[in-house]
């Protein structure tokens, strides 16, 4: 790597967890991406890219969930698709100690490309590993391994709390990716974990598939 003999460096995960002799064995078979930096808090000079490999045929991703939406018994299915996306934000903001902010924006500015639906929240944010998990088909938020922010195992909605304030409002349960491709042609997830200085971005596009 061209490191001088007297130069110090650290190896970290993309969530800036330093790799040491004590925790190295945990990561050997994890397939996690690593950074080689001068210090743990070093600012990245340019964006980094990470390729995600997953096996399902693209039709599985961009067309599954369609049956549920079109079989919505004559109801307008668009609100159900938006509910899937808002569900993610409700989950992300469920542990907020202050105000929970969730915005839905419809963007029609031609200078920004095609029209878009944006769902913006002030939740805990996702690490690159959690974004990877979100991209994997049928990896439910209830069963994701090592994903504490999205671990809903044993979750029971309190009776006094309206359903609209909890992350279980999605009607069909087909997932955010299926909702995205029901509404449009691509998804862009931009997230900054609360404890990190890095912003992570994930793009899924029917055109790329």
UniProtKB/TrEMBL annotation:
Question: At the top level of its lineage, which domain of life is listed?
Answer: Eukaryota
Q: Which GO terms describe its biological process?
A: double-strand break repair
- InterPro entries, from UniProt? HATPase_C_sf, SMCHD1
PANTHER family per the record?
STRUCTURAL MAINTENANCE OF CHROMOSOMES FLEXIBLE HINGE DOMAIN-CONTAINING PROTEIN 1
According to UniProt, the name of this protein is: SMHD1 protein
Q: Which species does this protein come from?
A: Sitta europaea (Eurasian nuthatch)
Name of the encoding gene: Smchd1
């Amino acid at each position: 790597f061209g490191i001088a003999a007297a130069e110090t460096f650290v190896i970290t995960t993309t969530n800036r967890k330093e790799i040491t002799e004590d925790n190295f064995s945990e990561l050997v078979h994890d397939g996690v991406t690593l950074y080689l930096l001068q210090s743990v808090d070093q600012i990245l000079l340019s964006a980094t890219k990470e390729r995600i490999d997953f096996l399902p045929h693209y039709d599985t991703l961009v067309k599954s969930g369609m049956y549920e939406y079109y079989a919505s018994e004559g109801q307008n299915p668009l609100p159900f698709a938006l509910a899937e996306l808002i569900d993610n934000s409700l989950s992300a903001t469920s542990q907020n100690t202050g105000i929970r902010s969730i915005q839905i924006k419809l963007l029609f500015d031609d200078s920004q490309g095609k029209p878009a639906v944006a769902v913006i929240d002030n939740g805990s944010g996702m690490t690159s590993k959690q974004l990877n998990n979100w991209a994997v088909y049928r990896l439910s938020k209830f069963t994701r391994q090592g994903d504490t922010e999205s671990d809903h195992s044993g979750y029971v909605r309190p009776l006094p709390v309206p359903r609209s304030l909890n992350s279980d409002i999605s009607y069909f349960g087909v997932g955010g990716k299926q909702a995205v491709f029901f509404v449009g042609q691509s998804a862009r997830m931009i997230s900054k974990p609360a404890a990190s200085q890095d912003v992570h971005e994930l793009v899924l596009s029917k055109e790329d598939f």
